[in-house]
Amino acid sequence: MKLAQYVLPLLLAARAVPAAGLPLTDFLPPDTKTVFGFRVHDIAASPLAPILTAPALAAGAVWLKMVWASGFDPLRDIDEVLISTSGAGPNPAAIILVKGRFDIARLTEGVRRYHDVPLLGGEKDTDSVVALLDESTAITGDPALVRAAIDRRDGGARIDPAFRERIASLRERYDIWGLGELADGFTAPAPEAKALESIDRFQFGIQLATGLELGAEIHARSAADAGKLHTALEMVASLLQSQQTPESAPKFELQVEDSTIKLTLSMSQEEFQKAILAETAALSSTTDPPPPPAASAATPVLASTKPPSQVLDKEGNTVILRLPGKK
Predict the structure, then answer these.
(1) Hey, how many other C-beta atoms are within 10 angstroms of the C-beta on 248?
(2) pLDDT for 53-80, tens place per residue?
(3) Tens-place pLDDT, residues 270-281
(4) Could you tell me if 285 and 271 are in contact, meaning their C-beta atoms sit under 8 angstroms apart?
(5) Quick one: pLDDT at residue 309?
(6) Which of 6, 20, 40, 191 lies at a CB distance of 3.0 to 4.6 Å from 13, suitable for a disulfide?
(7) 30 with 144, same domain?
(8) pTM
(9) Are both 196 and 274 inside the same structural domain?
(10) What is the pLDDT of residues 155-211, one digit of tens each?
(11) What CA–CA distance (Å, rounded) separates 32 from 30?
(12) Residue 222 sits in which domain range?
């Protein structure tokens, strides 16, 4: 399932309204193990927006073209996104819950329905599908998970109440957050993320209202894994602090107890903006082609490559040249 074409455009909205209908967490599958949340309004208003906007628009170009043609603008009409998965198997299915404003009449004219809920996409069984439950709630992802979420409107199994409370706590405090478990045998999606394989559960939150505030708690699979993670995080902290003056360096605290690592990071609004600008410039320098060199008096001018009409030897006789491959 190609989640990027749905997820990235949903992270760019600019307004927030009170949630209506059932809470989003009521639609989560009961076997959910990992959840990520995004308060889109705050992200769009933060220094992170310039970095997120360009790749999001590029990755979701086809999807955006479809929804704009129907009168829906994700840059304006999405407020919050939750992404959840059970984490089971090598390629676990995921479901995305969205709060916003949807013009049901315009978006769903002539589309197929499931229990009277309009469905967009999903022409093939392997395609993702978008369900519009009402004017403020959309669900997208694996078709089977989306249909099961629709069925939960009338009751049925819900996520564990303790897990729901942990989600609520992070959701109320942070703009970007996540918590969950990584199953035994989890394989990192890329070599640079290999350290994730030593983690069995985690939670984190990022708040962007007054700069950058990060809080995280990571539980390693063993004390040895915790030691390796602690060393790696200490190196990251040293690198961050070495790039700043003592007065502007981010505040970084790291604690280890048994196999649990707790860390906090805070950065002022001014320093956070500087860091984002530097990162944006670095990304631009690696993606933009270099400009052609300007002509100058020192620039050598190449002679014409047009061959002369005749080639003479030292005696003044005409020479016949045979080029390689010619007869």
Answers:
(1) 14
(2) 555 555 444 444 445 445 555 556 788 8
(3) 877 777 777 667
(4) no
(5) 46
(6) 40
(7) yes
(8) 0.72
(9) yes
(10) 888 999 999 999 999 999 999 999 999 887 777 777 777 788 889 999 999 998 888
(11) 6
(12) 182-288
Tell me whether residue 296 is in a domain. Answer: no
List the single range of 40-49, 138-147, 199-208 with lowest mean pLDDT: 40-49
What are the distances in angstroms from CA 326 to CA 176, 321, 322?
67, 10, 7
Indicate if 119 and 258 belong to the same structural domain.
no
Residue 314 forms part of a structural domain: no
Structure tokens at 304: 């014409």
Query: Which three-class secondary structure string do you get for the chain?
Result: CCCHHHHHHHHCCCCCCCCCCCCHHHHCCCCCCEEEEEEHHHHHCCCCHHHHHHHHHHHCHHHHHHHHHCCCCHHHHEEEEEEEECCCCCCCCEEEEEEECCCHHHHCCCCCEECCEEEEECCCCCCCEEEEEECCEEEEECHHHHHHHHHHHHCCCCCCHHHHHHHHHHHHHCCEEEEEECCCCCCCCCHHHHHHHHEEEEEEEEECCCEEEEEEEEEECCHHHHHHHHHHHHHHHHHHHHCCCCCCCCEEEEEEECCEEEEEEEEEHHHHHHHHHHHHHHHHHHHCCCCCCCCCCCCCCCCCCCCCCCCECCCCCECCCCCCCCC
Cα gap 310→202, rounded to integer Å: 79
145 & 276 share domain:
no
Say what the pLDDT of residue 184 is: 79
Q: Are residues 21 and 123 in the same domain?
A: yes
Mean pLDDT throughout 108-128?
83
The tokens 């809470």 sit on which residue?
Answer: 23
Is 295 part of a structural domain of the chain?
no
- Same domain? 87 vs 18: yes
Number of domains, the chain: 2
pLDDT of residue 102: 82
pLDDT of 56 reads 55
- How much is the CA Rg of the chain, to the nearest whole Å? 28
Q: Is the pLDDT of residue 223 over 80?
A: yes
Residue 317 is assigned to a structural domain of this protein: no
279 and 199 belong to one structural domain: yes
